[in-house]
Every structure is written in structure tokens, then in C-alpha cells.
Amino acid sequence: MRAAYRNHPLWLAFALHRLSGLGLALFLPAHFYVLGLALHQPQQLDGFLAFGAHPMVKLAEFGLVFLLAVHMFGGLRLLALEFLSITARQKTLIAVAISAAFALACLFLLRAFSI
Amino acid sequence: MDVAIWKGDGAGGQYEHFAVPAEDNQTILDVVSWVQQNADPTLSYRFACRVGMCGSCAMMVNGTPRWTCRTHVKKVLKDGQLKVAPLNNLPVVKDLVVDMDPFFDKWIKAGGLHAPSKTRDDDIAAIAPDTDGRQNANAGIECINCSVCYAACDTVRSNPDYLGPAALQRAWTIVNDEKHAARGAVLDLVAQSDGCFNCHSMGSCTAHCPNDLDPMQAIARLKRAAIKHQLAGGGRDA
């Protein structure tokens, strides 16, 4: 259980940023491996791309884009916090960052299912 | 109400339960004092002023660091229960008393000592109250050194050498103090490996500061100032 003193929005933003970063770190080696297939084993890549058309994979892609968006906007939030003179609006920034991430990921999901 | 108080020393300990009568107006410090005066005279705890000035009575209350003299029981009571423990991130001496030395040592390490730029024979420097530096310094000088921010900081928890929010906020007020003689040296000190760049901006310091100060923002500005200082060649001839 989250310790009581961590129960505030900024800590949640930190945790989201850290977890999304870890998720992306796990994704990247697999990503590069699949890209590498294009050079050496194009048939296998085609097989993987066919697998990628599965709705469940599309759903997983939504998660991936969400992680990317959360991480990017979280990073922008940190840059704003440290390099701009922002004060009490930090919480608003977090809210904006997370909702923008959601919006982007949802747009991607809609696009994935409409094709 | 049921009050669980941590008892032990640096080697370990456990919670002991006490039934404490509830009052209309009662602070956490009142509860701890009641236990010490009526139930367990061996209980050790620390306090002095009882009015939120001295910063000596901070403890973990239901998992959150708080100044106990100005925390009302009503505000924090959970299902009729109260859990009081020594502050996180500092070595326990006995029961609710922690050793504050590491906390204060870091104030010195972060350049917290005043370096005078004038002698007693000089006139007092005139500082306009509306300058940026004065405003920045003002934002941090009400710190009472209670160590609540230090106990709430997960970066201190994972790196015990990290200078911590209070010491770095002090450094930021000094960097903005026109009367200080070695402001560049302070920026060099806080840019070292256990300094301001350790901060992950989790914000627990700001969320829990009993005086409503904003150490996270002070550290963010310190980071910016330290980067500017290094880019301008600071620290190379130190």
C-alpha cells in the first residue's frame, strides 16, 4: 500500500513517469529486434506484422502509446517545473499532461480500430 | 481512542497501545504527553515551544510526518486510531526521539553557514524588499528546521547522502542573499553528486511542510541557477 505521506498528486506524477519509463525500457529491445528482422528475416517480419493486426495487439499498442505520451508529457512537465518560473500551477500542469496523454492514446486507439 | 506509539531504540522496537481519553481540543503532542505523564513514564519524546516555532516535536502520525504540537487529533484520527512513530530517514535514539545530526550536518554541507561580506564597522547593506532576490529569500526563511520535509522525502530514503529539501532550500535563500560573501561557492556545493540534481520533484516536501513553504520549487530554481553558474564557468577555479 502507498504510504500515507505519498498520497498527493505530485508523487503520483513521479510514479507514473517512472513506471512509464520502465515500461518503455522493456519495450525498446523488443522493438529494435522486430525492426532488425526487416534486414535479415523479412518473412518473419511479415508474420509478425500479420500478428500485429490482431485486435488484442492493437489494444496493447494503445497501452504503449499511452506510456509514451505519459512519459513525454511527464518529461515536459519536469522541464517546465525546473526551467520556467512556475509556481502554484504545477498541479494544473500535471492534470493537463495526463489528460493530453489520454487524449493522444485514445485517438490512436480509434484510428487503430477504424482501419 | 486507541493510540499506538512506537517504542524502542536504534536496534529495533515495536508499537505499544494506549487508551487515551479524547478531548475537544487536543493535539498529537497532548496525546503523547498524556501517555508519558499517565501511562508510561519511560516514554521518550522531544518538544520545546508547543506553538510551532521551535521545530523539535515532529513525528510520523498515521504514516505522515507532522509537527505534533499544531496537529489536532480530529484532523488525523482514523477510525478512532492513532499511530505515532519517530520521523523517517533519521536514526532513532529512543522511542520518538531521532538523532537530528545528519539533518543539521547537511545544512552545513550545503553551504548553510553565513559568510559575511561586511564587517561590523560597515553600514548595513540596503536591500529593497521588492527585488527578486529578496522575494526568493523570503519564500524560504520561515523554515523552522523541523525535518518534516526530510522525513517525507523518498530521495533521502533511497540515498541517505542526499542533502535533502531543507538544506537545499536554505542554500537557495543564501544564493539570493546579497549580504552573503560566497554565493558562487554555495552553487558549486549544491551541484555536487549528492546535491540538488538528485531531486526527482516528487513534491512530498512541499505537500507536508507545516509552514507552507515550497522546498521543491526552491530546489528547482537552485538547479537552474547551478546550471547557469556552471555554464558561466563557475567552480572551475574553486
Structural overview:
The complex is a heterodimer of chains A (115) and B (238). Chain A is mainly alpha-helical. Chain A has one domain: Fumarate reductase/succinate dehydrogenase, transmembrane subunit (3 helical TM bundles of succinate and fumarate reductases), CATH 1.20.1300.10. Chain A is built from four helices and no strands. In chain A, helix 1 (9-40) packs across helix 2. Chain A is elongated. Chain B is elongated, with a radius of gyration of 20 Å. In chain B, a hairpin with a 2-residue loop joins strand 3 (58-61) and strand 4. Chain B has two domains: 2-98, Ubiquitin-like (UB roll) (Roll); 101-231, Orthogonal Bundle (Fumarate Reductase Iron-sulfur Protein, Chain B, domain 2), CATH 1.10.1060.10. Chain B is built from ten helices and seven strands. The mean pLDDT of chain B is 94. Chain B has 238 residues and is α+β, with helices and mostly antiparallel strands. The N and C termini of chain B lie far apart (58 Å). Chain B has a five-stranded mixed beta sheet. A two-stranded antiparallel sheet of chain B has the order 6-7. At the A-B interface, helix 1 and helix 3 of A face helix 9 and helix 10 of B.
